[in-house]
Amino acid sequence: MDYQLTETQQAIVDIARQIAVKKIKPVREHYDEKEEFPWPVVDEIRKADLLGVYLPEEYGGMGGGNFELVLAAEQLSRACGGIALAAMTSSLCALPILLCGSDEQRRKYLPDLASGKKIGAFCITEPEAGSDATATKATAVKDGDHYVANGTKIFCSSGKEAETYVIFFSTSPKRGARGLSAFIVEKGWPGFEFGKKETKMGIRANSTYELVFRDCRIPKENLLRAEGYGLFVAQGTFDLSRPGVGAQALGIAQGALDETLAYVRMRKQFGQSISSFQGIQHMLADCATQIEAARSFLYTVVRAMDREFNPAVRKAIDEKTPVYEAMDKLGSRRWTKESAMTKVFCSDTAMRVTTDCVQMCGGIGYMRDFPVEKFMRDAKITQIYEGANQIQRNEIAAMMIKEAASAEKIAAGLA
Amino acid sequence: MALHIVVCVKRTPASTSVAVDSATGKVRTEGLPHGMNPQDEYAVEEALRIKEKNAGSRVSVLSAGGPESDEVIRTALALGCDEGALLSAPAFTGSDTLGTSHILAKAVEKLGKEKAPVSLVLFGKQSNDGESGLTAGETAAWLGWPSVSFVRRLPAVTESEVTAERLMEDGIETLKLKLPAVVSVTKEINEPRLPSLRGKMAAKKAPVSKWGAAELGTDASVTGSAGAGIEWGRLSPVPSRPSGTLIPGETPEEKARNLADKLKEAKLL
Fold this sequence. Notes:
The complex is a heterodimer of chains A (about 425) and B (about 270). Chain A is α+β, with helices and mostly antiparallel strands and about 425 residues long. Chain A has 13 helices and 9 strands. Chain A folds into 3 domains: about 110 residues, Acyl-CoA dehydrogenase/oxidase, N-terminal domain (Butyryl-Coa Dehydrogenase, subunit A, domain 1, Orthogonal Bundle); about 100 residues, Butyryl-CoA Dehydrogenase, subunit A, domain 2; about 180 residues, Butyryl-CoA Dehydrogenase, subunit A, domain 3, CATH 1.20.140.10. In chain A, a hairpin with a 2-residue loop joins strand 2 and strand 3. By secondary structure, chain B is of the alpha/beta class. Chain B folds into 2 domains: about 220 residues, HUPs (Rossmann fold), CATH 3.40.50.620; about 25 residues, no CATH class. In chain B, a hairpin with a 2-residue loop joins strand 11 and strand 12. Classes of the chains: A alpha+beta (about 425), B alpha/beta (about 270). At the A-B interface, helix 1 of A face helix 5 of B.
């Protein structure tokens, strides 16, 4: 399919593809097996300027939008979703700073994330606050010019390797959802330490850590937006970041199908290539059709999102105001429903496609020295993180009901 | 120490499995994806590494070929080379290695005169299509410069000489060449870098000179198919190897017995 990419977008695809083939494919098994952070590959991705494709040039980025990030993430994930994630977690730290940060916060933190001098991470989860972020127990209590943070956060991707974090604490536990606040936290601050490193089913090249805060003093300048706006920061970030998960899922699905197609053409049974059997052909066709449908949908949504979001970013930089304010002034739409849909559709596609790919490859597909089973393990997380797909469906339905209700109100008002 | 290094690159088919047209006996490359000859990537990388170690150095890229060879010059520019020239003219079509090396030598002389004196010319050890491996040596001959081929390491480059190491059948050979010199390198020499997005976008817009017979002052009696001393005869594909035979057996002993039986059957034992 010709998706009418610009020259720069095509160059992003070409470079990411080259890195995937030459630098990721040869080492993906090693990093999956050893569960080591793939620094040499992340360094290649950094040197290729891919870490800042979606960030404004003012901050050292390449001046693209979310679509550029999606293109890079898809191609890198086509070789390994875990290694791609190790590089791409930075965006989950940069996006809330871009969306909700002040002009000073943007200028202070975005350039190092755009250049890849520092890796970023994002952490909202706690043992008892997964899908329900309002149950957050970790607290940040105001003390003069600082907040004093205490508590434990879990499941932080790139946890120990990152140097800049966006982390959520309750600044007012009795206010529940309205007491949640987001902070920019730097590695090395006294009282900020790392706990358990998780061992995982998939995306094993990327680390997942527990973060422990004991009287960690966070300067009040590092609060994002204002106290009580944590949920706003998180939801706004997820609106922007979910297509990235979709892209990762899509890349994983495509990568599994690439390997499978090569294998079924080569594998002979009953004296002929198994790709000559209709049973296999129909599975191949279904996988390819689902992938292309997911891709068309993802690209369409992200491009529409960029058309609303990029001008707001431009305006915010020019006026030195936060981006969410510029969005309000421009009357920019938030794409909560469609963004959630891309994540649901791409990740469910990835799970189905990778499962079918293992099936088509048969016994060898199940073996660890053949790459297809890894794609299936890696696909699973995309249905879970950044909001389980059940939560996405809740959001989609909630938006549908809200839209229908407001359409009714408008109709009634007009009548 | 500022050095001027020239790298010569060739546009070739990106795949090594190229079909031979049985009717004409010629290689069919139309429609195939092309790119920089993989061996040349090592020459570009080595030139860039020398440049990075020696402040003020520059790397020029040359490619002799049709207008489409512009793309491999831009590939080299995207990686960090400073300037490029496409050596292209209808009169050059069909040149053999002697003709091509004459064109390249003229371009090296032109670069030396117009930009900065050239210290070192680097080549990949051979192209993945013609595979002659002659062009580097012949370019040196036209220039009258010392030359060494199949170099796996350049441990030292000074203003006046380059140390080159190559792997021979009976050991490692270390040579010193007075500069200017011509060197062809093997893939053991380095690991080529990948382009950056900034480099790639800048390379798309970079000016690439185009030099023909008039600009270079080439000798028409050695260039083009008329000047070629070598004529390509027929190419025929190597017959594909039949698949092997699996020797059945539950245990190593049984397999060995079955193998011995087969060898006896074939009267090889």
